[in-house]
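Appendix B, Record 12. Input sequence as logged:
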Amino acid sequence: MSPPDDPDSEARSAGYRVLPGVADEMLDTQGNVRPVWRPLLSAIETMSDEELHERFSRADRYLRDAGVFYRAYGAGGSSERAWPFSHVPVLISETEWQVLAEGLVQRANLLEAVVADIYSDNKLVQEGFLPPQLIASNPEFLRPLVGIKPVGGHYLHFCSFEIGRGPDGNWWVLADRTQAPSGAGFALENRVATARAFSDLYAETHVHRLASFFGAFRKALQSKARSSDERIAVLSPGPANETYFEHAYIARYLGIMLLEGEDLTVVDGKVMVRTVAGLKPVSVLWRRLDAAFADPLELDQNSYIGTPGMVEALRNGAVTFVNALGSGILETRALLAFMPTLSRHLLGEELKLPSIATWWCGQKAEREHVARNLDRMVVGSAFSRLPFFDDNGRSVLGSRYKDPQSRSISEWLEAETGNLVGQEVVTLSTTPAMVDGRLTPRPMSLRVFAARTNDGWQIMPGGFARIGSGSDASAIAMQSGGSAADVWIVSDKPVERTSLLPAEETFTRNMPGSLPSRAADNLFWLGRYIERAEGVLRILRAWHSRYAESADPSQPLLAFVSDYLAAIDVDPGKGAPDSLLRNIDSAVYSASNIRDRFSPDGWLALNDLSKTAKRFHEHVKPGDDAAHAMTILLRKLAGFAGLVHENMYRFTGWRFLTLGRLIERGLHMTRLLGHMTGPDAPDGALDMLLEIGDNVMTHRRRYNVSTARLTVTDLLALDPLNPRSILFQLNEIRIEVEQLPNAMVNGQMSNLFREAMRLHSGLAVLTPETMTADTYVNLERELEKLSDILARSYLS
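Logged structural output:
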């Protein structure tokens, strides 16, 4: 149906704050505002600019505090960017969504049938339904997987579909995503952020919730584990991946492990995860890395993120991949041209939701059609899911393609034949986005998710909308400046409100040994870096406080302490030295590798500390200014430590974090005492040492004499009740080590437990009079040795 003469008329008469050209998503084919949109638009119309700003700020603040980000790639490398959120949701009626869902369920079943044939009987090629070239020459066709039937019989378990609506109201499938579909976690965060912005409206509107979708999929994953001892995990490429935040978020949301390839090993044909309690079996891996990288032994030998032997484990039926390795072949763009025929052949049905018009150039008639209609075609690789791009990352019309060999269009198409595919230029419908305080139409596509549950395929009631930054429909990707919006599926009656909290009274409690060794390593070093930063901050604050009184760094005490700082690569002449920033950045990096085990509050506090330290690095002057800055950083660091101490569950991970802090604090105090209690220490060194150890008041209450080497040694080295003393650290280390897995085996102490006991008892029997410079040197060496034994025992 042709559009009305003035599609803006109803919106204008209703007073909605729109710019010329009302978004197509708001209007039906008669040009009237769809009923599903009216409550939201009416509510926005009654809001002042100040109220809208406050509402949108709430949503932005939530995303910022939650640490939601994506990784952008450019000429200068990659960087973390704030999540590009579009505040106005996309609204679709429940009735319309049901039709879409039926079409997507059919499509998921069709894709399952196609990939099952490709890796088994290959009848589709034999009988002429698929060209041999599209399979045999496809980089996503993984020959080692041929003949390997997945555990449970299914290749696909979690898919996504890029869909778009044309201005005529019809929906089209733009692409199928089966390799490692992303975005489901971001859809959850979009929902929370949008609910913050429109909390009143969201509560009143019958919007379908997302939790039931994830709950059903989690049950399906759990049902694939053959015993309670077998683990389920998200397999991630690591923090450098553009959607790593989502990997960690999904793992935390579903309560499953987040692993990387280096966490896994294959032993006797079984997949095992390296944990602090030894090797533990893994039976289900929701992979978020491309299949070819999963096994450098049989697939891509250049992969550094895979696990050798993974394909062999599949042959043994020892592991289930979500989705099966090799299923990425379904993302081949040229397959879209054959989907109608394949649906009729395999399902006996016409496609309920058609694909975007596609022509594979390996066939003469189709190649000639593309050549004749090049001005309205996007031409690209037949095997890729991505089109050709211009310098701005946007897809280009075939007529703008410049062949480096100066061939004509026909010559180019003839030479490349089956390597190219042509698709009609997408004219996407538009949805309202808030731009400069006005609802402005922007092109939109949806990413919709399908999960195989115990009751069959289930479609997420909502999804992930990608909104263009301008009128160009090719610039909807976030890498090209696009943004993301929530999708509300609205019913005309109340909907069920579900959550992932279990309704059953029975439950399974995971054992502490589930902590992967890599996660323990990052927690241990997070503790060390944080404590190292605190030690440096305390020394610098004391140094600058004294410098403020004389402004003479050459005075004996300041020079003496400067020598110590120089030995640990700290320049007190800078407000926040480079080495301090490196320690804090290293702590942030360690925490970033365990986002699934790290609270959002802890992450926010750590990043706040990092940002403040960087600001002081540039703008703080030596003396009072720097001493005040160090105090602020110490308070922020104390806030982070308090969050960890008060909120972190006393699981195995907490023990490794604590052991890192204890060992580093013990080393810090050992080195300081060895340097500042010697015979060459200048006047004031002992008082400064008490200040650094935060024990000035304690010393005054505990001893009835002035500061002396023996009293300071007694308090900071040998007092078992002083949380800053060396003996206190060793006692706590002994206690924590005793609680680690395998600390006692067959009644025998582990090497680590034995060394911790020996180190503690060796110091406990000493007196201040027997503490010499050699004692501190030996103690430092023994603490480093203890750290090495811990690493060999649990972190390798």
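The chain has 26 helices and 21 strands.
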